[in-house]
Amino acid sequence: MQTDNIINLDLFLERCKKFNLKITPQRIFIYKVVSHSHQHPDTTEVYEMVKKEFPTISFDTVHRTLLTLSEIKLINIVEGSEGSKRFDPDITNHHHLHCEKCGKIIDFVHEEYDRLDVPNRLTREFKVTRKRVVINGICKVCQKKNKK
To answer: What pLDDT score was predicted for residue 8?
Structure first.
């Protein structure tokens, strides 16, 4: 899993060129915002950060850019609480814990989950490209709040 806050600008440039995307300061900055986040931000959170640097950028531009970065596999989309899209800079294989109270998403690696078999009836329907396990529960912080 990615544990450092260093963005892979070479990978960014390579993917943009491969998919004929313009390399703009806004696009780079949006990628940096997500890459430096440990919180799996949603579009609004990314927009608020980007707007500080590029005051005239629209919410729609940020949202479309995030979807594009996901399509070219620079970031992943993670379904957050209540179905909101959240964005994950860690493109390595890993799984998530979702807190049902605060919405926090925690990354974890578990090789046994990576090896889960997909039922044959499903693999006949579509090609599996990735497996991700999501476990819902209540994080330690929220558990402590509930005890008070």
So the answer is: 81
Q: Which is higher by pLDDT, 127 or 60?
A: 60
Alpha helices in 3-119 (DSSP H): 9-18, 25-35, 43-53, 59-71, 111-114
State pTM to two decimals.
0.83
Q: How many residues does the chain have?
A: 148
Q: Is 42 left (phi over 0), alpha (psi -120 to 50) or beta?
A: beta
Whichever domain contains 107, its CATH number is 3.30.1490.190
Model pLDDT, residue 43: 95
Q: Which sign does the torsion angle of CA 31, 37, 40, 41 carry?
A: negative
The one-letter amino acid code at 76 reads N
| 50 and 107 assigned to the same domain | no
Residue at 42 is within a domain: yes
- Average pLDDT value for residue range 130-140: 91
DSSP letter (8 states) at residue 144: H
| Tokens representing residue 7 in the block | 């963005």
Whether 4 is in a domain gets the answer no
Do 68 and 45 share a structural domain?
A: yes
Structural domain of residue 133, as residue ranges? 93-147
